[in-house]
Amino acid sequence: MKEVLEHLTAVAGVSGREDEIRRVVGELVRPYADEVGVDALGNLIAHKFGLGPRLMLVAHLDEIGLIVTEVDERGFLRFMPVGSGIPAWRLVGARVAFSNGVPGVVGQEKVEEVKDLRPARLFIDIGATSAEEARALTGGTGAVASFAPSFSVCCRRVVAKALDDRAGCALLVRLLTELREVPNDLVVVFSVQEEVGQRGARTAAFGLHPAVAVAIDVSPAGDTPEAERRTVALGKGPAVKVMDTGLIAHPAVRELLLEIAGREGIPHQREVLERGATDAAVIQVTLEGIPSGAVSLPCRYVHSAAEMIDLDDLEGAYRLLRALALTPLAGRF
Prior knowledge:
Elements: H1 2-9, H2 19-29, E1 35-38, E2 44-48, E3 54-60, E4 65-71, E5 77-82, H3 88-91, E6 95-98, E7 103-108, E8 122-125, H4 131-138, E9 144-147, E10 151-154, E11 157-160, H5 163-178, E12 185-191, H6 199-208, E13 212-220, E14 239-243, H7 251-263, E15 269-272, H8 280-283, E16 292-299, E17 307-310, H9 311-325
Parallel strand pairs: 3-12, 3-13, 13-16, 14-15
Antiparallel strand pairs: 1-2, 2-12, 4-5, 4-9, 6-7, 6-9, 7-8, 10-11, 11-17, 14-16
Helix pairs in contact: 1-5, 5-9
């Protein structure tokens, strides 16, 4: 799974520009699904036929990024973030890459205090010396950049860009490649545009009408020095979501996940997240309502060029999702 994760994080896929990552994931799962398709918004949907209720598992393809808003006469590119929750200070010095491979670095204007730093005071420097050169190299206004690819492993911890949510995607890729027969009708959705408002998951759930849904995403870890929140921690297992700002997990879904984790002996945590949400937030209120929950991977430095997760947490999450997929759901929902 580590090799798949490295492969997936290397691919760019900023919200609204998921074409390449969708192609890569599609090639990985197509031989193992009974049916694979792409819906109108761009969600990749892999279907394994089963006779039981429809179970929807979802992880998002897209990652945060930067979109060029203007180019000045010296060739510096002004931008705004694509995706929410990206502190300006976290972008300073970050290496980025445009879809055509042009590299750049985020620089800043002089500010008196960090609190004065905001995206309007930042710029992307690609080394161009004029507006014309910068536009020719990147396309100018509307061009999108992602963080430059990176991947390293130390002490069972992975550091890379876009672990949010390529880690979830890697889990679902492995699940599809290793499952043979399933008791439930399983649909695995690799959703688009999660970072800009869970748009893909909403349309996918409307079209698929699952009986129950579980989102797989990362969650900010609170285990670093002087952490703002003491929530989930790396190395203590995947987290079963209880609540976040968009979801109060359906009690039956939450308890089923906790029951499975206990039965399988999977180290796990419970998560109450003060800020943030997943695709489950919109799935639960689609159609007449869909019982929804989430499995979270603790992650340090979320929405940065160097996010960090624990490989043992990743393995635990896989065991939890595999056991869920193999649990008959008839009569439970």
